Amino acid sequence: MNKLLAATFLVAAAAVAAAQTVWRFEATDGDGKQGGDAVGKSANKTPKTGDTTVLNLPGGEKMVLIYCAPGEFMMGSDRGESCEKPVHKVRLTYGFWMGKYEVTQKQWKSVMGTNPSARKGDYLPVDSVTRGDCDQFLRKIEAHSHGVRAWLPTEAQWEYACRAGTKGEYAGEIDLMGWYAGNSDNRPHPVGGLLPNAWGFCDMHGNVWELCNDLFGEDYYSKSPVNDPPGATMPSNKALREAHRKGELDRMVLPRAYVLRGGCWYLDAKDCRSSRRHAIGFGAVPEQLIGFRICCVLPGELVFSGKRMP
Q1: What architecture (CATH level 2) is domain 20-303?
Q2: Parallel/antiparallel/unpaired status of strands 96-99 and 295-297
Q3: What's the pTM?
Q4: For residue 24, what pLDDT is reported?
Q5: Where are the domains of the chain?
Q6: Of 232, 246, 266, 284, whose CB neighbour count within 10 A is largest?
């Protein structure tokens, strides 16, 4: 990185840090009493976008989280792949916390006791994980951190956090914000080594693909609801039986993959755009290009007024 870019990076990073408020939590046990392992009830009533806190993980490691307040944005791109169209309004009706960084190998090993990654390094993003592996990681966090509810981000939550209020193809200058084929030296890099976006998230462009909660639907955007889109869904058993009875089962388009977002160190910049969608099939062999970050709500927060979690 040349001196001008380095100076730009430092100034921008300082501006993001200055705008953030650290949210502090009292440690509580499962009954709300002092002394548990988890982060607990908040001393603040309402966090705002960009506020941060720290989640204590099983095994002793910590994870920095950033808050995303409810809001609206335009999802997709008219200049992207067909599956990124049409551009459509999305409204997220509840706030959530998301990992500032992709889950690192050190964090994964702290929780799971193993490291499946192809290229080892404590602060490299964990890779070569499956959807089932990620689910186990999340359940272990929940079991350890009383009252925390954790999940993989929905595709809409991921793009909302990635864009951080921007409307272009990237959330800023790609060479300053993301590791891709043009600057990665053909390898992943430790998390947080480049500029964060306006809300403080790092590595949303490039480094490793990030698994999302959603099933992938090629034409999902044409029928996506405005409020809290859950992603493509599998037909009910009743619908499948009816299609079989009518001889139409072979014509049903069924989701066969999970959504991936963000691009990776191996790909061109165009594949690391904010709206870029990709997928990994059910049961696919784990790839060294795939990692993830988490979403959660913390103890003492409203649990979405009874809405079903992802």
Answers
A1: Alpha-Beta Complex (3.90)
A2: antiparallel
A3: 0.84
A4: 47
A5: 20-303
A6: 232
Mark 102-111 as b/e (b = at least 16 C-beta within 10 Å): bbbbbbbbbb
Alpha carbons 247 and 241: distance in angstroms, whole number: 10
Mention every residue, 6+ apart, whose C-beta is less than 8 A from residue 309: 149, 151, 303
What's the CA dihedral at 155, 190, 164, 17 to 10 degrees? 150
- pLDDT for the residue numbered 126: 98
CB atoms under 10 Å from CB of 250, counted, come to 7
From the number of C-beta atoms within 10 Å of its C-beta (0-12, 13-18, 19+), residue 272 rates as: buried
Q: What is the pLDDT of residue 253?
A: 52
Would you say residue 33 has pLDDT above 80? no
Which sign does the torsion angle of CA 80, 86, 89, 91 carry? negative
Average pLDDT over residues 281-308: 77
